[in-house]
Fold each of these.
Amino acid sequence: MNPYTSRRQMLSAAGAGFGALPLAALLAGESGRSESPTAARTPHRRTKALSVIFLFMEGGPSHIDLFDPKPLLRKLAGQSLPDSFDKPVTAMGEVNSPLLADQRKWRQHGESGLWVSDWLPHTARCMDDLAVIRSCWSNGINHAGGVCSMNTGSPIAGRPSLGAWVNYGLGSVNDNLPAFVVMQDTSSQVVNGARNWGTGFMPAVYQGTRFNTSGTPISNLSRPEQEDSNAQNRKLKLLDTLNARHASSRQQQSELEARIAGYELAFRMQSSAPEAVDLAAETATTQSLYGMDAKTTRTFGRQCLLARRLVERGVRFVQLYHGAGSKWDSHAGIEKNHSYLCAQTDKCVAGLLQDLKQRGLLDTTLVIWGGEFGRTPMSEKGDGRDHNPTGFTMWMAGGGVAGGRTIGSTDELGLHAVEDRLHVHDLHSTIMWLMGLNHREVVYYDKGRPERIDQNEGTPYTKIVG
Amino acid sequence: MPPTSRLSQLCPVRAFALLLIALLSTAFAPSITADQPPVDDDQHFETHIRPLLHTRCVRCHGENQQKGGLRLDTREAILKGGDSGPAAVPGQAANSLLMEAVRYESWEMPPDGQLKDHRIEHLELWIASGMPWPTHNGKSVRLSGAAFSEEEKTFWSLQPVTQYTPPQTDSDWVRNPIDQFVLRRLTAAGLEPAPRADNRVLLRRLHFALTGLPPAPASLKKAEQLDIRATVDRLLDDPRYGEHWARHWLDIVRYAESDGFRADGYRPHAWRYRDYVVRAFNDDKPYDVFVTEQLAGDEVAPDRRDALIATGFLRTFLYEYNQRDARTQWQDILNQVTDITGDAFLGMSVSCARCHDHKFDPILQEDYYRLRASFGTMLPRDDVPAADLAERQRYERQLQQWQQKAGLLHEQLEQLKGPYLKKQAQAAIERFPADVQHIMAKANGERGPLEQQLADLVQRQVLFEQDRAKYSPADKAEIERLEREIELLAGRPPAPLPPALTVADVSAQPFALHIGQNASRKAVTAGGFSILQPDVFALQPRGTSSGQRTALAKWITSVDNPLTARVIVNRVWQQHFGTGLVNTASDFGHLGGRPTHPELLDWLACEFMAHNWSIKWLQRIILNSATWQMSAFHHREHTVEHSDPGNALRWRFDIRRLSAEQIRDAMLVCSGELRSEIGGPSVAHDSLRRSLYLKMLRNKPEPLLSSLDGVDGLNSVPQRATTTTPTQALNLMNGAWVRARANAMAQRLLEETNSQDNVILASAAFQLALGRGPDSDELAAATRLMADSESAWEKRLHERPFAQFTEHTGTALRIGEHGVAPPATEELKPAAPFTFAAIFQLDSLYPSASVRTLVSAWDNSKSSHGWSIGVTSEKSAYQPRNLILQPIGTGGYEVVASNLRPELKTPWLVAVTVDQQKNGGQATFYLQPLSENARLQTAVVPFQSAEQLNGKLPVKLGGRWKSDGHNWDGLVDQAVFFDRCLKQQDVERLFAARLSADSIPAFDPLAFWSFDDRRQPGRSVPSDHPLTIATSVGGSAQQSGLSELCHVLLNCNEFVYID
């Protein structure tokens, strides 16, 4: 394709005027969007994907024990990293510790024959739907920087999260639910807390909303116990009267109307949000597909099922944190740690993929699995592994992604990504692209800087669609 | 306009096909998808051409050298060419010398190795396509170099500030020169200013503008005699002025009190910088001094406490306590400091120039590194006391004296700790990369400046590990013994002075920094923007300081710097009008706005500097202008809106939402709860102090402020956003904090009006919240709400969870699932000896081992003192349905089982006496069915320790503190405490009287609760220890109605917006 003719030039040359096209101008933010900032917008590109479910395995799952087998690691176990490998800066300084062999049984699965270890027997059955990206890399060597990078593209806090960018670019198609929902499996704080789904320098309208997975889904959603059942209606009625009188003589300030509408939306959520998280309508078969009938998988299974219900209702971006509070972090005893965490998630994730597929939702839902980094081939404390941001695995499925494929590779020990290296910026650009957005055109101006999700460094890996 | 394409000549069929696909895909033709991302000229240039020219060409053909007379850093320069003629001809790659050169056909360029084939292809494609050079708003973006164009040199914000004379006018609307400038533009546009706002509106506007708080209702009553000039003066002298304005500056410097990474470590001393900013505004510190102290307080006034604290500006960077990549972390810190300096003082986003020359503004990458070099010798210091020199010296002397006295013992202590500390240090250092370990192996004096800075980062982790050293029991004992001996000998060491978060220089030598930290690029020393001042700073080292930061401050605060005064004047204007004269307060570059009133901006900047950079002067001139005093309403609004919808010409005042802090603080003013203390350490989020003083944690922002667009301390925020989110509405309507303010406001109104007339109360509520009384419609709506609320309250009163014992007259309280949450007292903490008696009925047991707690004063933790009386459940090790006491005294936790087994769903009389004796404690249990003539069962059970059974927590009925898993389920009535152990005959007498209210007072109770008075169910006799019954309707019907009205008022648009 000729890079010297932008699409817009082409179109104007061809005399084709489209209502949908000047999105870049709209998104640039300067030309006074008259619509609501979260109104649904047409993507740049026709795509299948409408929603994202990002399964964030927090703490850093080990790629070399799950998706990226390394025979050489077994051969060199106990030795130091050969000099032929670049020595990275590691979080705990384990760069010279002996290499640790994996203890897994590896097999190829599906028609595609993708490799998965015996830690993920259920995911193994879905391999034909997965694009396993073995060549991811990032900059954060610690959890804070890593989780921040995976969410915002920078190890240093202050930039908008991926969900916020997608929300900014595409808007919401459900007025009664937030467009960006976050859930977590434990009550521990996700590393860095709420700024992982924050908006950095963008306005707060694009931020993620934390959903509790039982009880009241959103903080302050339900009527305070102390109030009688009509108190809210009474108050809203008077509020509406006062606000309407106030606004009628101040039509120059459109924010006043927006604020009135904000209250209406909030109270529509009072019925729509609990309905969305009410699993009573889900059959026992469905619940068991997600592992909700077993203690180990009940919690995450429930969240995966909730994620499906939310995307069904038009929620744009759902992020599930498993192992909230760095539980996947296995500096010591990786066998015990990963056995348990894989058992907690494997069936639920596979159930989600199968359920989405059988309902025809997998085409429109991009599912992403991964952590903030992988783990080193070098051991730590004898039986654990340190953080490895220089090479790790993530997978994507659905939303137009061509499954049953491995993308990129790491070196022979899984330390550095070597082939088709995809930096977090590239991953973000790819996700935006799969969602139909040209990430370069989704621009937010902050203090004179035209800001983009990738800080102008990412390239979408478009071959991911096959 | 470059020709669109030459690709068709190269590959016509494919080009056409792609064009077609692109066209169709954008039209969303159903059967075709475009799998290539749209690529355009700019992107190709940015991805392939700019890096190529930049890295391989312009070193010899650019700013520093022009070999062969050729420059390759602008499109114009390439077209112009060098000694051999034009370097390239647009559209004709084959005829371009540049292509010959890179193909090594004539010249062999670059000489240090031929370009890879695909790079040559990109270059060819680019020339063939007409050499498109990205533009923004019609201007070519910069590639590099200091060859500033005329246009750049004449860019408005870089021109010297000019002294303009305010335009003459004979209008009597004009109050000061601001109005003369504004009126001229209005008149020229055929517009007239809106009338002056009425005094009531102005008074409210003024108070919010200067103190951030609403005016007191009393002053509103006198609004008609408003003397603006005097009020402005008075409010500028109010200490709350500094609190309000400090917030804006803290937004800009992205002040926070935590590290911002995983641990988000709290910075307990950061608040001193916040207080410094408050003082600076209150004292009207000249802005040039304010800037200088923040950048170089340690250099210009090392003896002064405030100047040291001011450098806290340089300490707002994010910091990761366990980052082993010390080099990257240090670079990040310097980048952050450089970026914030550009944003805050110069209103220029310099960070674009970190990786390349600024694309739109004449800021070179070199300039970025010149600015950064100013901080090149800086070292963050946490060990300098926040004190004047004299005080520091006094402390040093005391410390020395103490150390002398402690002498040998102190040395012994150090020796004992030595190996441990060394081991911890070693463990910390070993986690760093080899090169950093190497630095740590060097002696202090051998380290270069950068090495010292890196070593300091490592040392922070060393100290962290050393604080966690684990001594052997023997050594620990010895350390404690030595410390005791030292204290006997020399007394306690002098109390350390509070530390400042400050900086110092590691070297008096200026720091040279390679551009882009690339050793092959030019090394630069501290300097300003080349376009303003080509020369680097002349430095005057002071002692161990390089003086670089002082020089930077001097350049920034020079009256010749065209940015500094304009930027701050514009910031203040923005805060008063909602938008600045330049609508992008931190961007005075090409992508930013242009001043709507350039002459006014310059006039203000000039006068501001002439008035000794006085912010208060600026406040006065703005607030006393007719422009600021305009009404938000214009009689020709609809016509004028058509010609100037954005109000750029200032024909009316813009209606604006208050900031998060203003809203929260105003709620506290209305509820009468706002605390008046100024300054000091930050406080918890539920505090009733001004929002400025709430802890600012980067990972845990306060939710209410956050929902109202408060700042997170991560980004510099020159202007607050105004958004409307469901979270905001939910927080304001359902959040406990706001509801508590509404309740307090209602309580206050009831007390202050001393009235029960809803009309009077509603009017007072409007007055308090909105600064005006309600009109008749509003009053009717408000009183209707109150009446409805009152009747709902009455109805609930009778639905409340009260029940009757069949055998007992009067009502009992139902606690548990079908009743209220366990109610509690505030202060009652009985210790042995005491007696508790009551009538109870238990309806169920837990299926687990949890205890149905009848009464307790305990937080359910075996390590906390307290006690609990209850009945065991199904899986109890003491059998189910066993009446037990759980005492937790100095001897620890015990279970004292009575083996008395009350039947479920049956009312019982119970009494338990808890005694403390010489060798332990003794509990006596009395249990008797409430039915007539039933037998009294008793059990006396000794236990280990009854000492100090009263912990920190007061009595809770039907449950425990900090636990929701040990609650009562059933009825409780006639509950009573005595501060002694009743004798059996007393218990029998009380039981015989069914614990009636008449029988109790004779026994002198500590506290007695019956629940017959439904309006005051928690009342106690004597009245010292009322129970707070959480889920009941509290207060009175009237208070409930008034609270609801107050809550609505605190939510309404008129409360959060000002005209």
Amino acid sequence: MHIQLSHPARTVEIKGPKRTKDLLRELNLVVEAHLVIRDDELVTEDEMLYDKDRIEIRPVISGGTP
Amino acid sequence: MNCTKCKTKAVIKIPRHHAAFCKGCFTHFVHDQVARAVKSEKMFGKDDRILVAVSGGKDSLALWDILLKLGYKADGFYVNLGIGGYSERSYTMVRRFADSVAAPLGAALHTHTVEHEEGGGIKELAQVVHRPTCSTCGTIKRYQFNRAAVEREYDVMATGHNLDDEAARLLGNVLHWQEDYLEKQGPTLPASIEGFAKKVKPLYRLSERELAAYCVLSKIEYIVDECPMAQGARTLLYKEVLNRLETESPGTKQYFYWGFLDKQRRKQDAPLTMSEKDQALLHPCATCGQPTTAEVCSYCKLMARAKLPAR
């Protein structure tokens, strides 16, 4: 499946099917600091992701002075 | 995973509340958390005019959106920091939200451009004054925001500081024992003296992840890129550490920050410390002469009940 990542912006290809939480773990990303979006919809950590899916993993942490 | 409230398919899990929500119930949850914050911290009422600091990021746009949806009179204030393409993209997000969501609800957007008044962008100014960029940026934003609120006669100014911001700031202050800063870390800072507007942080009960999710679900476009000046900022490290703890032990961030607020409140309610209070109330026990806060000390009462004479 096609995965869009940020900071820095890049795309990675990962073989599915895979559960969302396992995908995050494989990419060494913390659940609390990311959202997983499939075709503009949020998915929960137990959701199964497939090869045909277009996935965005969006970091939610911002720094500096808000 | 199903929604804890309505049992339809959930879109987000919130371990710290042992809950998962569908889109509708999550929106209700977010609005409810802000309404609770506003009420419990006595932030503002329906007749007050609120000035919201908007940056184009998820927190400030979510805050503006939530306040308008809850029926408050909230205008926006944007500071153009002059950070090249980043400032241009962030302004685009703010302008788009102001035109499509805020204006139809009767809200206005005010702007301040740093280069016009301060004579250069944030990066250049920080180099001139030999201070870190984030600190220079914070000083200018706080100053201009306060000035705009006072000059335009707003009752209160609101910022998008969330639970993660406040917990990270608290961790930094505690690690360096900056006790003076700790006193100023509440979600409501009153207009203490003439020229200082009242400041509130209505998002302190919501995490960054929840606010990003709110924007995605409400179709609010925001600037996802990190500010290029904030890279390597200490705040990011504190947030990362807290999020690792949160993942292992859900609720850590809220227990840390809300617990701090609770302790602050109790301190205010009880102006004297335990020892000061004891000092004020202590006098010799009528039976044995040892210090006590009652007429007869606990030991003498105990001994009396045991039918033994006190020494």
